[in-house]
Design goal:
The structure is a homodimer. The first copy, chain A, has about 750 residues and is α+β, with helices and mostly antiparallel strands. Among the domains of chain A are: about 140 residues, Beta Barrel (Butyryl-CoA Dehydrogenase, subunit A, domain 2); about 200 residues, Up-down Bundle (Butyryl-CoA Dehydrogenase, subunit A, domain 3), CATH 1.20.140; about 45 residues, no CATH class. Chain A contains 26 helices and 13 strands. In chain A, the strands form 4 sheets. In chain A, strands 1, 2, 3, 5, 6 and 9 form a 6-stranded mixed beta sheet that branches. Chain A has a 3-stranded antiparallel beta sheet with strand order 4-8-7, with no helix packed on it. A two-stranded antiparallel sheet of chain A has the order 10-11. In chain A, strand 2 and strand 3 form a beta hairpin. The termini of chain A are far apart. The interface between A and B is large, with 168 and 168 residues.
Chain lengths: ~750, ~750
């Protein structure tokens, strides 16, 4: 046995490998078409394949099962080794986009910032951004550690800096190429997280020296949770209160150097410590920072929207209020958008592992002498696993769509708000509206999906029984790494409330004033169209949720009706109680329903599009529609309380929906292996032996355990702390004897004399 | 700042300490009475206080924040150090129960097993069992590591061994005193978990030598997840197929020695390895075991119910079928019962931490210039935290009640099924029924509560924002340690299905045959009483869920009605489809509803009892009733889909229940600090600085972080892997130059010639 002996392939007991093969052989659906559908289009699909292939074969970047056995110091160091490697890919990726691999070095030209060369833009970073998103899937701590530098530090400068400041810090100094300087994002403090406007760190302007002095006035003002601060960052984007002539102008952003770039020694006035043990993502060097009279030049304030001007000693502060308020969105927005994509990728990983295990694993025979039943053949198991698979499918189109909207909206914003030259007020008004919609959409999708994926990981781990609790099968660490997504870059509850309040406001405008922006709102907020609202409220919209192709949009629309009814109920409650806080529970629900509606709509539109679905095979399309229906029905059943309470459905209809659910599950069960194969995740991306492609669950798992836990060198079975155990087991009969025998009757009698 | 500077106590920004003090000062409820209520009675309360006091002050047993920073080898060793200490407490505790501290050493007498001394029984172990349960709360891995030895190995022998075998292994050999031998419980295999009857390990009887040979026939038959196997166990209770004369008699239990008790070297034919990294409980040495022709004497088979008899070469197998089937219950039952108690204790810990944090933490001001609002004053926050607090309160009475039922039923079983002398068939029939009911009750309560506490930890972690993700605040490790409770000792879904099928059967008997056991079923299954069923089905039971004292039982009864309606629906579905597997989702729900009903009933009965509640203060009782109502209403709202679908309530009634929920929350919010103080958990038990008693959240948290992460010795801020970072940041402009310059135009032109 042990390593050399394998599971007998002819054993009558279990048949894992044959099961997976059999299911693959029996399938007729087109995995290639599905993968193109999931990856948005052929170009993105090819790029994704190419990058994944590089990652799992790169000796530095690949993750192996030893990932689950490392100490924190090891993780920290290995993560930097990986960043180092990623920095080289970064240069390579930019050159690939610009097709410049010869003669003058492109990166050098960009850093020298000669006029002959176009500055970097989002398109130049598109390959690397995809690479970063994919690497996050195999090693979330690596993704974050780079993401904080590029995404948070970088976007803070992009969102708040002047064009010159952006070019200087990100391009000339090399930050965007992960060289020269390394940034962190010093927003949150020990005492303030969600309430950014309440941050306490101060930046006081000194007119004499034309500088700011940065200070941490109180323990609670210590910058806290700052990723990259403990060990890597040379610079920080600091959120601090701008104080000029004793007047507090609120929280603005400043670039504050932390460390000597060559020795990494802390600069004067900077105190930094390690945050220490976290629930997950141990490879991120989160730290705290305290500033004591740290002086920076005035020019280090990011001044796109707010400037301190010193004209011969006459100091003034100039602000563009509208834009200043937008700037708050920008740094965190990218993270939220990316987390929706992460939801798809993380979900696909765990759905693949759990589905393959459920098909390969047998437990309990239906009758004596029969082979034991595959877990996936139990209806309860199908009910636990397959809706999660459907969820992953449903995230994908909305994640890609949100990402596209993000990039196009940001481009429009930069075009209309250049810091050089006049602001184009008309187009700025439009882009501001778009940005606000994007904020609502990303908040609702980020919060809802990061929650749903937490639940998915937890539920799917449980479907793998004890083997799901082994760290080598990815669920434990995956969960611990994942769940911080529900808290950071906007706490999910706060985001949900904010999104819901905007939706409620739009609802009110539509109902009371017939106000509805057909250009900007008809996509994400189609259910707020006045005529839709009135037909939903009057109950004239009927749903039979049939399988007729012409009625498939019903599965989306029914959520629009549910939303309208929920919004109307909440509106009534607020009018009655005059207290919006009291309906918070329902507000969170509005955001969830909105996200579900958006996901269904994006999926419906993509799959029914003659040009964008890339799915031509009929049987394949059929299965993809089944997933869509399953998702909609599963969540109707899950929220059947609200569907009944607000009279979208009555109890008989709910019972029919539950019936229908039970008929769809076996259809999807038949194709569940091809449907997870279609994610095209190589074993190196899964890093979980019970989920490997070949389905050889027992041999794969045993071998990974053995590889990471070789028999002890000093004699198998004898633990290093042997003496503690043998001393305990071998201790004498008499406790008293071990104390010297002073409790013996004879002694006690003498003692009592 | 750093360690020396403290949060300014006069700072206008935050007021954590004063808030907690103020809420305590304003409270009028009697914490002592509540604590007695929660701990069941004054005797148990005093014992609990005494033991907790010992644990948090014992230099070996106490847990500090360094608990969160240890490597796996450190955890393993420290855990054994703690077991060592617990073994001494064990002797002490038995002597305390028997009041024998002088003259002849009690433990020696018990081990010598002289006829003059009464053998050990459950009462002798009562103090130690409480100690073990409490220590599990501060260090779950320690609890488990001892629990496997005493609870699983010990109970397997107690449940399956003859009186002589029990006395020998547990008393003479010292296992019950944690000396002499150390046991593990080798049930699950790589290929079989829930399906115990399908285990593959074989024990073949050899008539020639009157021995068994134990073998692992296949990789999938490797014993897997065996706690204590990797490093500590000298003996194992092995589940293996009994094969006599070529006939397979199914899975029986055997004591198989694994290691030399003095050197801990593995014995011949035993191969053992470490299971390695787990999601949590790293201090447990879970291992795998493979047996290759391991020979044990026939007498090592545990033979209370099945015996192999060799009379002069004539070999036969004698089985007591009824009792043999019961024996399957016994080993895992204790664990399940204990997990309900764990649910109360774990829940109380996290409810305390999150409640204190929510009262101490302020975020967002309601108006400019106002102090920021305490988190707990937000209705959404109340909705997220307070029902979890109510849950913890509701677990307690049912946990104590289940524990009592367990001990009395087991005692009755031993009395009626002694292996010496004739079996008392009449009383055995009764105790068998009781045992089956206990199985249903413990399965439903174990599954439901371990799930609910998983959700509680997750939800409450999120209410603490980023600080909840810090390992030092207990949630992360707490969750990882906890969730295995949903899988082991009976997977929650399997347990729920089994419990529900029994309940459904009872329901069928009651409806169709009017069969209802007034003596045995009227407690846990009161809702199955025929007249209750018919009034529930006819809709004649009306609920106004008012605050009238005489109507408080309604909050329990409404769940009985919901259960009846759910059972009726499920019965109908099964009749229609002839397939019980298809209704599995509803079966799981039956088990959940049953558990909720049991918890409400136990709480109601205790609190309304003139003798057992120990709560005489009116205001105190009022608050305790509010928790009861909150629990019932919260879960009605949560399951409002089923309450409406099966017509327990209509949508207007659900809306009223939601209203009522919102009026109860602020009542409990007022007393939330005293209500968590009443758990009387010292800081050393919480091990989470944001939850410490004084409420000084920022200073406490900062100091723990600093203690565990002192500034690096070789220069603050300069990481050990400095060269990897500075090399990356300082790399030259030109990528090509780093490759030797071969891509320059001039070189390329030469190369193309």
């Amino acid at each position: 046995m042990t390593k050399t002996q394998e599971l007998n392939p002819n054993s009558p007991v279990f048949d894992p490998v044959k099961f997976l093969k059999r299911e693959r052989d029996a399938s007729t659906i087109k995995k290639d078409e599905i993968n193109t559908f999931l990856e948005s289009n052929p170009e993105k699909r090819d790029l994704t394949h190419l990058i994944i292939d590089q990652i799992v074969n790169d000796p530095v970047l690949k993750s192996d099962s030893d990932y689950y056995d490392r100490s924190r110091p090891e993780e920290r160091e290995i993560t930097v080794r990986k960043i180092n490697k990623m920095s080289l890919y970064m240069e390579h990726d930019i050159k690939t986009v610009r097709k410049q691999f010869r003669d003058k070095d492109l990166i050098q030209e960009l850093q020298e910032n000669s006029n002959s060369i176009r500055p970097l833009n989002n398109k130049d970073l598109s390959i690397f951004n995809t690479r970063l998103s994919l690497v996050h899937n195999i090693d979330p701590q690596l993704g974050t550690r780079i993401g904080v530098h590029l995404g948070l530090f970088g976007n803070c400068i992009k969102g708040n800096g002047t064009d010159e400041q952006i070019k200087y810090w990100l391009q000339e100094r090399g930050a965007l190429f992960i060289k020269g300087i390394y940034g962190c994002f010093a927003m949150t403090e020990l005492g303030h997280g969600s309430n950014v406007a309440g941050l306490q760190t101060t930046a006081v302007y000194n007119p004499d020296t034309d500088t700011f002095t940065i200070n941490t006035p109180d323990l609670a003002a210590s910058k806290w949770w700052i990723g990259g601060a403990a060990h890597s960052a040379t610079h920080s984007a600091v959120y601090a209160r701008l104080v000029v002539n004793g007047k507090d102008y609120g929280v603005k952003t400043f670039v504050v150097p932390l460390r000597d770039v060559s020795t990494l020694q802390l600069l004067p006035g900077i105190a930094i410590g390690d945050i220490g043990a976290k629930m997950g993502r141990h490879g991120i060097d989160n730290g705290w920072i305290q500033f004591r009279n740290v002086v920076i030049p005035r020019e280090f304030m990011l001044s796109r929207f707010t400037k301190v001007i010193n004209e011969n000693g006459k100091v003034s502060v100039k602000t563009e209020p509208l834009l200043d308020s937008i700037s708050g969105y920008s740094a965190l927005l990218s993270g939220r958008v990316n987390m929706v994509m992460d939801s798809y990728r993380f979900g696909s990983k765990f759905a693949t592992i759990a589905t393959r295990y459920a098909v390969a694993r047998q437990q309990f025979a239906s009758a004596p002498g029969q082979p034991e039943t595959q877990l996936m053949d139990y209806p309860l198991h199908q009910f636990r696993v397959l809706p999660q698979l459907a969820l992953v499918y449903l995230v994908s189109p909305s994640a890609h769509k949100l990402m596209n909207t993000y990039y196009t909206t940001l481009d429009e914003l930069y075009q209309s708000s250049s810091s050089n030259g006049p602001v184009d007020k008309a187009s700025l008004a439009i882009v501001t509206k778009k940005l606000k919609n994007l904020f609502v959409e990303s908040a609702s999708l980020k919060a809802t999906n990061t929650w749903l994926i937490s639940d998915l990981i937890d539920e799917l781990r449980q479907t793998c029984g004890g083997h799901g609790y082994s760290q080598y099968n990815a669920f434990g660490r995956g969960y611990d790494d994942w769940v911080v997504q529900c808290t950071w870059e906007g706490d999910n509850n706060i985001l949900s409330l904010t999104a819901a309040k905007s939706i409620l406001k739009k609802f009110g405008d539509s109902v009371s004033k017939g106000k509805f922006d057909k250009v900007l709102d008809s996509d994400a907020f189609s259910y707020l169209e006045p005529s839709f609202i009135s037909s939903a409220m009057s109950g004239s919209t009927k749903f039979d949720l049939s399988d007729e192709p012409s009625k498939l949009y019903q599965y989306t629309e029914v959520w629009g009706v549910a939303l309208v009814k929920l919004l109307a109920h909440v509106g009534k409650l607020i009018r009655q109680t005059k207290n919006i806080d009291n309906v918070s529970k329902f507000l969170v629900l509005i955001s969830k329903f909105h996200a579900i509606h958006s996901m269904l709509k994006a999926y419906y539109e993509k799959l029914s599009s003659p040009t964008d679905s890339y799915v031509s095979d009929k049987a394949t399309k059929e299965v993809l529609w089944s997933l869509y229906k399953l998702f909609s029905l599963y969540f109707i059943d899950k929220f059947s309380g609200e569907f009944q309470q607000f009279k979208t459905f009555n109890s008989d209809q709910i019972a029919k929906i539950q019936d229908k659910l039970l008929t769809i599950l076996p259809e999807i069960r038949k194709e569940c292996i091809p449907l997870t194969d279609s994610f095209e995740l190589p074993d190196g991306m899964l890093n979980a032996p019970i989920g490997y492609f070949d389905g050889d669950i027992y041999n794969n798992y045993f071998n990974e355990v053995l590889k990471n836990n070789p028999i002890e060198a000093d004699g198998p079975g004898k633990p290093p702390y042997h003496s503690l155990l043998s001393g305990m087991l071998g201790r004498g009969y008499e406790f008293d004897a071990r104390l010297g025998g002073a409790a013996k009757a004879e002694v006690l009698s003498r003692l009592s004399k």
